[in-house]
Structures are given as structure tokens and as C-alpha cells.
Amino acid sequence: MMSATVVHKFITFVGFMSILHAAYSAAQHRSYLRITEQEFTTLPIDILIQGIASLFIVMYGVMYIAGDFKEIRAVVDLENKSWETLRNLPSFQVFNHRGRSLSPEYIPE
């Protein structure tokens, strides 16, 4: 059972801050290239590595914060339920309807 601890929340926070720092560095690099009138070809390798590593750090932290994963297949959740339980739809049960007035035992109020 995976539970979110303070450590996992801190790891996720650090990952988000690192992604924001990589984005700020990329924007600053682009503005530097505009000021020096150089052509943009690609980001420096350190910004790319920081962005990718930060993405994986955030994914790791979010996996623990999100909790346990559920099966995609509905059969896993439904195989322990009986047919009566599956067909029980309380929102569609109506007990007070006009058909009761057709009953021979009906006495109007």
C-alpha cells in the first residue's frame, strides 16, 4: 500500500520547482540569444537534462501522492458482486405512483 508521506510531497515540490527553474532558464536563454542577435538552434544540454530529470522526479512523487492504482478492467471490481447487487438501482425505484389507484385495494385519502 502506497501512502503519501511528507517526503514524497517534498520530492514533488522540489521537482515542480526544478521544472519551473528549467523553464525560466530556457526563457532567459532565448532572450539572451535575441539580445546578442544569434539564431536559436537548441537549448543547452544542462537545461534539457534538468527538465527531463525534473519531469521524472515529479512523476515519481505524484505516483505516491495519488495512492493505489485501480484496475482498468471493470471485471476485477465486479467479480465479487452478485447479480442482485448489480441490478439494484435505487434511483429508479418508485413506490408512490399513479398505478396504485388502479388497484382494487386502493382507498383514496
UniProtKB/TrEMBL annotation:
One of its GO terms (cellular component) is plasma membrane. The chain crosses the membrane at residues 49-66. The keyword Transmembrane applies. It comes from the Eukaryota. One of its GO terms (molecular function) is inorganic cation transmembrane transporter activity. It is found in: Endoplasmic reticulum membrane; Golgi apparatus membrane; Early endosome membrane. The keyword Transport applies. Signal peptide: none annotated. Keywords: Endoplasmic reticulum, Endosome, Golgi apparatus, Magnesium, Membrane, Transmembrane, Transmembrane helix, Transport. Pfam families: MMgT. It is a multi-pass membrane protein. Belongs to the membrane magnesium transporter (TC 1.A.67) family. Component of the ER membrane protein complex (EMC). Part of the endoplasmic reticulum membrane protein complex (EMC) that enables the energy-independent insertion into endoplasmic reticulum membranes of newly synthesized membrane proteins. May be involved in Mg(2+) transport. This is Membrane magnesium transporter. It comes from Pogonomyrmex barbatus. The lineage of its organism: Eukaryota, Metazoa, Ecdysozoa, Arthropoda, Hexapoda.
